[in-house]
Amino acid sequence: MIDALFGSKTRVKLLHLFLNNPGKAFYVREITRLIDEQINSVRRELSNLLEVGVIGSTSADNKLYYEVNRQYQFYEAFRSIFADQQGASVIQGAAVATRGIGADDWGLACDRLPGVRVAIAAGALIKDSASKIDLLIAGSVSRPKVRAIIKNLEKKIGRELNYSVMSYDEFYYRLSVRDKFIAEVLAGNHAVLVDTDNIVN
């Protein structure tokens, strides 16, 4: 329904991406990966959004970056339609239901990662979290598999995720010595998705 109202599915996905990430700039190939649309369609809709002033562009490192124009006269109206007004997530027990990511997605992601012993969601995935890390994983896990799963989750929520992977022994040690990085993640709003040995809480 909303696709018809705004002209195209790609345009709707772009609006959702930009309006949920004010202040963050994206380059074309990053956008096509995040919204899972063809590059020609993305370029065409970016041009349309630029023309009406919804987004702006800047050039850096030989790349053209795009971000939402917060001075656009209908910015707040568009935000009310496309931005996630409930915050990034709702915690339900040990599962997280994030905009575009449900508890089943987290369960499936963990099932595909044999060896994960700790998984913590924070940052963009958790309401009112100021963490720079969105997902922290510890255990004997395959990094290529982690990356593949992260890419799928990024497509669902329409933004890039910052994540960290470490061995369980490293995590346990850093937790025990109150390492600054681990302490900051746990001090802010977060959700423990996996904790096989109950060492986090």
Plain-language structure description:
- It contains nine helices and nine strands.
- It is an alpha+beta fold.
- The strands form three sheets. The chain has a four-stranded mixed β-sheet. A three-stranded antiparallel β-sheet has the order 1-3-2. A two-stranded antiparallel ribbon has the order 4-5.
- β7, α7 (143-157) and β8 (163-166) form a beta-alpha-beta unit.
- α2 crosses α5 (75-82).
How many H/I helical runs?
Answer: 9
Mean pLDDT: 79
The CATH topology name of the largest domain reads Beta Polymerase, domain 2
Task: Bin the helical content.
Answer: 40-55%
Give the termini separation: 44 Å
Cα-based radius of gyration, to the nearest Å: 18 Å
Point out poorly predicted stretches. Answer: 1-5, 85-100
Would you count the extended β strands for me? 9
How much strand?
15-25%
